[in-house]
Amino acid sequence: MQVLNGKTALVTGASSGIGAAIAKELAAQGVHLILVARSRDKLEQLANELSKSYAVRCIAVAADLSSPNCGSNLLAQVKAMDIDVDILVNNAGYGTYGRFDSIAPEHEQAEIAVNIAAVVDLAHAFLPGMLLRGSGTILNTASTAAFQPVPYMAVYAASKAFVLSFSEALWAEYRDQGIHVVALCPSAVDTGFIDQLGDESVRKTATFSSTLLPEQVAIHAMKAIHGKGPTHITGFKSWLMAQSVRFAPRSLVARSSADMMRPPVQNGASSS
Ligand SMILES: NC(=O)c1ccc[n+]([C@@H]2O[C@H](COP(=O)([O-])OP(=O)(O)OC[C@H]3O[C@@H](n4cnc5c(N)ncnc54)[C@H](OP(=O)(O)O)[C@@H]3O)[C@@H](O)[C@H]2O)c1
User: Fold this and answer.
1) Homologous superfamily of 8-261 in CATH?
2) Banded model confidence at residue 265, pLDDT cuts 50, 70, 90
C-alpha cells in the first residue's frame, strides 16, 4: 500500500459531493490539496476546514473546466506555486437527463468538455511530471453508467464510457513506470448531481431509487488509489451488473436500460 502522507493531490469537482468527500478522505491521510471547481467560496470554505482539521496545505483554485486548455492553465498555476502534483483526481462532471432531442445542444457540448476533454487535458498536463518523478496516481471518476448505453442519459453515459476506456488504456500504458491510473465507477450517489439533472422524476427510476453517500464513495476512492487494477466499482451488485451486460445482446441491454431510465410521459408525448 502506498504511503500518501505528505503527497499532494489536485481534486477537480471538489466544491461538493464526491469530490469534497474524496478531498476530506485524502486530507485525513495527510495529503496536501489543490481544490478545483467554479465555486470559489465553497472551495475556500472547504480548504479552511481541511487545513485546520488535518494540518495539511489546502489551496482553492477556481476554474471552469469546460474551457479549452484548462489543463495547461492549471499546470501553470500549480508550477507558479512550485508544487508537484502526485495524485490527480479528475472528478468534476455533470449529467443530462431526458429525451436527446429535448436537451439543449450547448448544455451537452459543455458536458462533453467537462466530462471528457478536461479529463484528457489534465492528464496531459500532469502526467509528464509524474513520469519524470517515476511515480503518480490518476483517479478518474467514471460511473457504472460507463458499462452500457443509458437511454435518456445518452451523452452522459457515453462520456463515462470514454473515461473508463481512456483510464484502462493509460493504466496499461504506464503501469510499469510507477504510474497508477484507475477509473472509479460509482453507482447512483446522493449529491447535487441528481438535482442538477433538472427532473425530480429521475429519483423514481430504478437507477436512482437507491443511492450511496459521497462519504462511502470516498472510501472506495481510497481503495482504488491503493489498489492495482484499472477499475474500481462501488459494490458487488454494481460489479455483477457491469459484468452481466457483457454476455447479453447489446440491443437487449440498450432496451432494458431504456426501461430503467424512461422519464414519465409529459404533455401527452409518447415516452416509448
Ligand atoms: N451522483 C451520482 O449519482 C454519480 C454517479 C456516478 C458518477 N458520478 C460522477 O461523480 C462526479 C462528481 O459528481 P457528484 O455526484 O459529486 O456531483 P456534484 O455534487 O454536482 O459535484 C460536481 C462537481 O463538479 C464541478 N463542476 C461541474 N461543472 C464544472 C465546470 N464546468 N468546471 C469546474 N468544475 C465543474 C462542480 O463544481 P462547481 O459547480 O463549483 O463548478 C462540483 O464540484 C461527476 O464526474 C459525476 O459524473 C456521479
Assistant:
1) NAD(P)-binding Rossmann-like Domain (3.40.50.720)
2) low
Ordered by start, the domain boundaries in the chain are 8-261
37 ligand 1 Cβ < 6 A: yes
What residue's CA is closest to ligand 1, atom 25?
13
pLDDT in tens, 136-167: 999 999 999 999 999 999 999 999 999 999 99
Q: Is 94 a catalytic residue?
A: no
Are residues 187 and 144 in contact, defined by beta-carbon separation less than 8 angstroms?
yes
Q: 87 near 136, Cβ under 8 Å?
A: yes
What is the number of other CB atoms lying within 10 angstroms of the CB of residue 115?
A: 28
Q: What is the mean pLDDT of the chain?
A: 95
The dihedral sign for the CA sequence 160, 174, 214, 40: negative
Tell me if 70 sits within 8 A of 121, measured CB to CB: yes
Distance CA 115, CA 153 (A): 13
- Is the pLDDT score of 226 beyond 70? yes
Compute, in angstroms, the gap from residue 10 CA to the centroid of ligand 1: 15
